[in-house]
Design a protein that fits this description.
The structure is a single chain. By secondary structure, the protein is of the alpha/beta class. It has four helices and seven strands; from the N terminus they run αβββαβαβββα. Strands 1, 2, 3, 4, 5, 6 and 7 form a seven-stranded mixed sheet that branches. A hairpin with a 2-residue loop joins β2 and β3. It is globular. The two termini are 17 Å apart.
Length: 166
């Protein structure tokens, strides 16, 4: 795991209450993707999943395949929405994922566009996953296109963290 991903994962667990998936006793019918950090958080009866992946050496096909695999994992968590923490939620809003592709030495515009378009699922079905590109060298986070307009933990939050990490 890269220093940037380690730093971000520590802050996400301490400040945004994400629990590292490997530390949870949550059975899933789909194996989690092999990425740098995989965190889960319950939020208003929904399961929010965040993934951080070192992407500097990934090609186009690998990025698409990882977006598919991550969405498959978040989709498999849908039955746990509203039940992740026993007794806390009575509403089942859905399962939502954010995978952040981390680039240390910059990210080409074509790769940014590819990642932005790797959104999977449907907000209407309460089951979607969006993809962002984090360009650590430039201190920028390139968010997904279209709806939903925002995603937790937020672009500004991640940009502030990478500015501190630099």
């Amino acid at each position: 795991m890269s220093d940037t991903i380690s730093f971000l994962s520590r802050r996400l667990t301490s400040e945004k209450e994400f629990a590292q998936f490997s530390e949870l006793d949550l059975p899933t019918p789909v194996a989690p993707p092999a990425i740098g950090f995989l965190g889960l958080r319950e939020y208003w009866g929904s399961i929010m999943t965040i993934g951080l992946v070192e992407a500097s050496r990934l090609g186009t096909d690998e990025i698409r395949a990882l977006a598919d695999e991550f969405y498959g994992f978040t989709h498999a968590l849908l039955p746990f929405a509203g039940r992740f923490r026993v007794g806390l939620a009575t509403t089942r809003l859905g399962s939502f994922g954010l995978i952040v592709f981390v680039f240390h030495a910059g990210c080409e515009d074509a790769t940014v566009r590819l990642i932005q378009e790797c959104k999977r699922g449907s907000a209407w079905k309460k089951d979607y996953c969006v993809c962002w590109a984090l360009d650590a060298a430039r201190g920028r986070v390139h968010t997904h296109r279209g709806f939903p307009l925002t995603m937790f933990p937020g672009r500004r939050y991640l940009e502030r963290l990478i500015a501190v990490a630099a």
